[in-house]
Write a structure and sequence with these properties.
alpha/beta; Metallo-B-lactamas; about 300 residues; about 25% strand; seven-stranded mixed β-sheet; 14 strands; Metallo-beta-lactamase, Chain A; RibonucZ/Hydroxyglut_hydro
Length: about 300
Amino acid sequence: MLKVLILGSAAGGGFPQWNCNCDNCSKIWAEDPDAVARTQSSLAVTVDDENWFLLNASPDLRQQIQMNKELHPKFGKRHSPIVGAILTNADVDHIGGLLTTRESHPLAIYATKRVMGVLGGNSLFNILNPEYVDRRDLPVFETTELQYKDGTPSGIEVELFPVPGKIALYLEDESKGDNFGSVPEDTVGIKISSKKSGKHFYYLPGCSAMPDELKDRVRGAEVVFFDGTTWIDEEMIKTGCGVKTGQRMGHMCMDGPEGSIEAFKDLDVKRKVFIHINNTNPVLLNSSQERKTTIEAGWEIGFDGMEVLL
């Protein structure tokens, strides 16, 4: 068994964003049932219903734990079923939740050497006591069985692989050209497998393009959780909520000839689930034509609390 739980399905800032009154967010403020609030991007995975690894650690982690009884403390005065986290990049919405886990709890954090360097270079993360929290580098293109803090094998195997994207916003260096100093290990996807059953899925919350090698990798997969940040590339600009395109932010859009719906059309992926959905994306509205189009194309719109079993 491989169980996946969507803890948060929105992009950075969540839905609604704290200071936003766009067409989508205004529906949340007005308590319109056409829109449902969502927390920031994160998944959790288990093979035994007892020990859970986070896939990215959202700043909303405490709320997400409260909303999902599987992650509640179970034993004694101090306990958590969360035993570790795997990070896909160093974006604030993917690492901020690590600070919530600072209460002397044994954890194993996994990421590329590049992302670990970001954590190591920011003294704020020194709050994670190394006596309790192990930081473990993961090489790309290698399958590794995750271990608990004490070295016990978990039965979950992961493989990280670089995907098109960019360096985290706060690390951008305009002096280093159009890619702002990005390197391949800044953004990765993850293949997550049950060692016992061989069942697996893919998690790609940030991806700016679908080159042929990435298409070949996910072709025929049982489940792919994929970047659903924007519907169209200029969405932030057209909604008056920003000045950057989706591509500039490191995300491919859903719609159009260069979008993810088209890219996945002939890949025979059994279940395709959009996650990391920006507050401006019209698919967040239950009644929208964009949502209908997405579902008719064979996609699911991920939601907080959604469970997938493999």
